């Protein structure tokens, strides 16, 4: 029995550029997503994130390869209400109120959640009578979220969901997402806010040039791709750059910061072979990992 929420195999999507030459926006992705996973989808502009999301949602068909959502073609799962999506733009009528917008879309579902429930989940209860055109960009993103959960979906796809939100609104949005996760929903979100991925995702999938360049638990991806730093007060005359495994050296006052791929070995050497004191080790951030894995990827037209 297939227990995957998403299964993609050899997924390729080709387009033509302005000169008529073909290029692969998605270039052979294989991906399996299980029930209840919370995945942060990261990558620079043009890496293929949005194209991948479009194929998961059945908005575009792969050039080659296969993709199934809940063991069926994506559009079939969409029609059954098993997938909800929050996209960056589109789909809202400015002259309708927030409540009327949700009621209108609810009429297209077989068994939608009650209006009051959806308004509460999206933190829109106090805006129910406001016209959509009078809502801020962040408030309109919350309306899109409300529409995405109307069918009580098992899978939520979020493409840059906090675009246009200030810091407070982003915090409230991710509180709402935490509630969705506790309900057991599978959540996949693409974001440019590295901190969001680090704080919320349990698994990171990094994409570069249409391929997956890293895939694993958030902490493992961060630690595997990011160099660590060892900071210490070194004895006078010690050549820090010549220490084993040192990548770069920086100083601030009497402290020296050493970047290394093997902090344990460097720390052990400093403590046993030198008179270094006041030693500390820190791990790079997920942003460091993102830059390390994708900085060599040339930018191309965003899809």
UniProtKB/TrEMBL annotation:
Keyword list, A-Z: Antibiotic resistance, ATP-binding, Nucleotide-binding, Transport
Gene3D superfamilies: P-loop containing nucleotide triphosphate hydrolases (3.40.50.300)
MF-aspect GO terms: ATP binding; ATP hydrolysis activity
Entry's transmembrane regions: none
SUPFAM superfamilies, alphabetized: P-loop containing nucleoside triphosphate hydrolases
Membrane topology, record value: Peripheral membrane protein
Keyword Mitochondrion: no
Pfam families: ABC_tran
Protein name as annotated: ABC transporter ATP-binding protein
Record-linked InterPro entries: AAA+_ATPase, ABC_transporter-like_ATP-bd, ABC_transporter-like_CS, ABC_transporter_ATP-binding, P-loop_NTPase
Domain ABC transporter: 6-234
Subcellular location, record wording: Cell membrane
GO cellular component, as recorded: plasma membrane
CDD domains referenced in this protein's UniProt entry, alphabetically: ABC_DR_subfamily_A
Biological process per Gene Ontology, one example term: response to antibiotic
């Amino acid at each position: 029995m297939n227990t995957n929420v998403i299964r993609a195999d050899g997924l390729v999507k080709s387009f033509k550029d302005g000169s008529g030459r073909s290029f692969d926006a998605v270039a052979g992705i294989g991906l399996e997503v299980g029930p209840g996973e919370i995945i942060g989808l990261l990558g620079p502009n043009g890496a293929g994130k949005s194209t991948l999301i479009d194929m998961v949602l059945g908005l575009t068909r792969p050039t080659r390869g296969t993709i199934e959502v809940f063991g069926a073609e994506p559009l079939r799962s969409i029609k059954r209400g098993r997938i909800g999506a929050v996209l960056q733009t589109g789909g809202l009528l400015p002259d309708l109120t927030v409540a009327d917008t949700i009621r209108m879309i609810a009429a297209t579902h077989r068994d939608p959640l009650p209006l009051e429930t959806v308004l509460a989940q999206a933190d829109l209860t106090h805006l129910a009578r406001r016209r959509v055109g009078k809502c801020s960009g962040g408030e309109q993103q919350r309306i899109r979220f409300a529409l995405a959960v109307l069918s009580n979906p098992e899978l939520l796809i979020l493409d840059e969901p906090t675009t246009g939100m200030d810091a407070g609104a982003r915090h409230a949005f991710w509180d709402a997402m935490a509630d969705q996760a506790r309900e057991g929903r599978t959540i996949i979100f693409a974001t440019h806010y590295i901190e969001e991925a680090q704080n919320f995702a349990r698994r990171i999938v990094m994409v570069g040039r249409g391929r997956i360049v890293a895939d694993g638990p958030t902490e493992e991806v961060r630690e595997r791709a990011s160099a660590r730093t060892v900071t210490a007060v070194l004895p006078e005359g010690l050549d820090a750059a010549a220490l084993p495994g040192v990548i770069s050296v920086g100083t601030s006052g009497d402290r020296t910061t050493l970047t290394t791929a093997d902090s344990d070995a460097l720390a052990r050497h400093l403590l046993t072979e030198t008179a270094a004191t006041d030693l500390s080790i820190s791990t790079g951030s997920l942003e460091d990992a993102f830059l390390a894995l994708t900085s060599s990827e040339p930018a191309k037209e965003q899809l």
